[in-house]
Design brief:
Layout lengths: L1 H12 L9 H11 L7 H13 L3 E3 L14 E3 H7 L4 H14 L3 E5 L5 H8 L5 E6 L2 H14 L4 E4 L2 H10 L6 E4 L5 H12 L7 E5 L5 H11 L6 E4 L3 E5 L8 E4 L3
Parallel strand pairs: 3-4, 3-6, 4-5, 6-7, 8-10
Antiparallel strand pairs: 1-2, 7-9, 8-9
């Protein structure tokens, strides 16, 4: 019920690209949000279909807030693929965003089964992708899935609190980060503050499930108010944060896809 109310509120406030008075956001809408071209989509979605059919049970160590439907530590791969992977449209949108802005150093918090990781990795052949996953079983499966698709990303296993600094030390800057591994307010804000130290004015941070709960909406609103943030875009399932210096005051957009 809460999610339905949040979505209705989003739909009432959201604008299509023709109602956006920002050349940069309009161009993003034209070239990223409303395009459908995707690299390696056929291969990636073939792997997703395999996962959706896989009834193998695995033991999980959950450091986040849990999934929307299932709780506990034993789940089938099929259930995980259905409920915990990022929506296909959002994963493909992030791929187009990385390609369009030519972002090279990519960080992901929450590898899961590696499907979104694959989309991020395929976005830019020159990009370096580091993905963090707290669960050893998921990390192992993700590595195999990337190999099936013919892609390479560095997956670091362990709690984000233990691995995030290690990942950041390997990256001169964070050009793009997808933060989707913990749906609680304070951890999300902690990750934001930590990653912020490696951002530039051209960086983009993406936050998954910003309307998933009151905590996540609270985290999103706090991030929007940070003095370094000059532009945000709410796509409901995804929140995008920019640090561009070409504006005199922060702007916050809600875009309907």
């Amino acid at each position: 019920m809460r999610m339905a109310k949040a979505y209705l509120n989003y739909r009432l406030k959201a604008k299509k690209r023709h109602g956006v008075h920002s050349p940069f956001v309009y161009n993003l809408s034209e070239e990223v949000f409303y395009k459908s071209s995707t690299k390696k989509a056929e291969e990636i979605e073939a792997v997703r279909k395999e996962l959706l059919r896989d009834q193998t049970l695995i033991e999980l160590v959950d450091y986040g807030a849990g999934s929307r439907i299932y709780k506990g530590y034993e789940r089938s791969i099929s259930e995980i693929a259905k409920t915990s992977s990022s929506p296909t449209a959002m994963a493909q949108l992030m791929q187009r965003l990385i390609s369009f802005l030519n972002l090279n150093n990519v960080l992901e918090l929450g590898t899961n089964l590696g499907i979104t990781t694959a989309y991020l990795t395929a976005a830019n052949p020159n990009a370096r992708v580091i993905s963090l996953e707290g669960d050893p079983s998921l990390a192992s499966i993700a590595v195999k899935n990337l190999q099936k698709i013919g892609l390479e990303a560095e997956i670091i296993e362990g709690r984000f609190e233990d691995t995030l600094d290690l990942a950041l030390a390997k990256m001169p800057t964070v050009d793009f980060a997808y933060i989707d591994g913990n749906h609680r307010k304070q951890p999300t804000l902690n990750y934001f503050q930590t990653v912020l130290e490696k951002t530039t004015e051209n960086s983009v941070l993406a936050f998954g499930d910003i309307h998933w709960s009151q905590e996540m909406e609270g985290a999103w609103n706090t991030i929007k108010q940070n003095k370094t943030v000059t532009l945000t875009i709410d796509l409901f399932d995804l929140g995008l944060v920019f640090f561009r210096k070409d504006r005199t005051e922060a702007e916050h957009f809600i875009i309907r896809l």
